[in-house]
Amino acid sequence: MKSIFALFVSVALFLSATAPRALDVVLLSDTFDDGTVGAYLDGQPLNNGLGGSVSATWEDPGKYATYRQIGTNMVADVSRGPWDVYNFLTSYEVDPTKTYAVEFVQYLPEGTLDPDYWNPHGGVVVMARDQHMAGGGLVIRLQGLDASGWDPAYFSLVYYNGERFFPNPPIFTGNFELEDFNSDGALPVRLEFTGAGTPESPLNGRLFLNGNFKGSFSIDDMVNAGRKVGFVTQTGQRPPGADHGWTDNFVLSEVVLPPTVEILAGTFPYFLPHNQVPLDAIVLKAGLTEDPSLEVTWSQVSGPATVTFGDIHAIQTDVTLPAVGYYTLKLEARDGTLVGSDTVELVLAEAPGETVILSDNFDGGTAGNNIGGRTLNNALGGSLSATWADTLAMAKYGLDGSDLVCHLGPVTTWDEVKFTCTFEADPNKLYALETRIKPATGVDGIYNRACGPVLYSQNDQRFQQSGLNFRFSGPADNEEAPNSVNLVDINGTRVTGWTWSSLVVGADDPRIDPLNDYDDNGYLPIRIEFTGAGTPDNPAEGRVYINGNWKCDFVADDLGNPGRRFGYQTTQLSSSNPLVIGDVVVSELNVDLPNAARHWSVLQ
């Protein structure tokens, strides 16, 4: 059984929905109200003014943290310290087998850091050993306001893995939104976490700002980790008088949360005869950690007939839908008396009618000539007129035995990798793209060259304008993930203009089956059913089959620069065998959904 392969921009190990409020048992807290202005916090007891009965003191041997008065309120002020000494901690040590929440209010520091033009930051540290960077645990940096114009305000994760402090690319980062700040212009922070940061006990956590969920992380390669919690700061004095920022209302709680359950499924219907539907979900203990001891149960809530589950107690299973109609299924997870659940609605419809609108088998060309400007010959059906656009002359006619085919690659850069068809899909219609390909077999470095169809592309040959890439790789011995099926979503969310979200498949995820997915001529017969625009209002969603075998579903609602073209891309940089495209057929599907107003009314 292969897991559902649902591609969301927010795809992560953890749920992106706001978690239910935890049943917090406050251990210790500090309002800082009983301090003296200018006095050091080092050695001072936490006053437990917001609850808690555990005794603890602040540890700051470098004497960087002092009491400060803001109006009538006393807070903690942390002045600048050396680059490798940047936090102050509580003496209390957490238990990595338990789940905690640390909460506080952070006013971001101002100005820029000396001697470089970097913005200062405050933040929180967990699993720290001491004040030094190499023993600093895991830091959530809350970056200061963008006074420099060089290093914009954002939050990010930093930790020491024995080689570096700043993961590259960042594994957890994001921007502040207006709703993340309270009425005083400060950030109310809540970080939930559990684990030790090792392969046996990953440090899992999730961040909320002013109650807004910002993301989740999992770290399993921390070095020199400890068990203490506290604050971090790196502040500057440029310009003179720049505010260090301040911290208030610190609370450390042990939390008890029910399991969180997220069924991985989009709204794409299933069509007869494919009535056996794969099921998969993310189930996490306390919303943070995978735990095989959790008891899970699938059940049917509603539907026109009784379904049959493959295994009602397996997270990954399948269900057989016996009749056309709508079905609501439920997955429940139990952790003792704590219960979490999620539901999903599936629809089974009659097989859609198909009208071929475009096709090309590349007959009529001359091997070695460029394909750019060619009119699709509609030899396999279709009456629309369209041409192939390839101003960079990357696609050429080739021979596969005596058959004319299209060869794509090698390309010369990582950025310019594709060619497209001038046909533009209507985002309010449902299509099927069928094509036969032979993945490129050249190897560059340790990777073989992933390649395949492209949807939602602009009239541009650059990778960052690709939309949604379907990347298929061959069986190279030194490939990290041979025979893989990988969707790359170009979502345009980075400050520099674009990035991608990639769901790289593992051993239990959809892969090319060398025995069953190739046809007798060595091609992968691929069928991609799709609809939508790639936006929040009209997500791009669909399903992938290879040689009639279901591989994955996908949903993408944040394509940064979506277009409406389809085409092909390759990352083949070597001179070895290129991507071979045998033919392509594009059909419009005529869907007759039961009770159509409930699903996809735009298609009716």
From the 3D structure, determine the CATH topology of the largest domain.
Jelly Rolls
The total beta strand count reads 41
What is the mean pLDDT? 80
Largest sheet: 8 strands, antiparallel
| Beta-strand percentage range | 35-45%
Report on the architecture of this protein.
This protein is mostly beta strands and about 600 residues long. Helices cover about 0% and strands about 40% of the residues. The protein folds into three domains: about 25-255, Exo-inulinase, domain 1 (Jelly Rolls); about 260-350, Immunoglobulin-like (Sandwich), CATH 2.60.40; about 405-590, Jelly Rolls, CATH 2.60.120. The strands form nine sheets. Strands 25, 27, 28, 30, 37, 38, 39 and 41 form an eight-stranded antiparallel sheet that branches. It has a seven-stranded antiparallel sheet with strand order 2-5-14-7-8-9-10, with no helix packed on it. Mean pLDDT is about 80; it is low at about 1-20 and about 490-510.
Draw up the topology in text.
Layout: E1 23-30, E2 58-59, E3 65-70, E4 73-78, E5 87-93, E6 99-107, E7 121-128, E8 138-143, E9 155-158, E10 173-174, E11 187-194, E12 203-209, E13 212-219, E14 228-234, E15 246-256, E16 260-263, E17 270-271, E18 276-279, E19 281-284, E20 295-302, E21 308-309, E22 317-320, E23 325-335, E24 338-349, E25 353-360, E26 388-389, E27 395-400, E28 403-408, E29 418-421, E30 430-438, E31 443-444, E32 447-448, E33 451-457, E34 468-472, E35 485-490, E36 500-503, E37 524-531, E38 540-546, E39 549-556, E40 565-570, E41 579-590
Parallel strand pairs: 17-24
Antiparallel strand pairs: 1-15, 2-5, 3-4, 5-14, 6-11, 6-15, 7-8, 7-14, 8-9, 9-10, 11-12, 12-13, 16-19, 18-22, 20-23, 21-22, 23-24, 25-41, 26-29, 27-28, 28-41, 29-40, 30-37, 30-41, 31-32, 33-34, 33-40, 34-35, 35-36, 37-38, 38-39
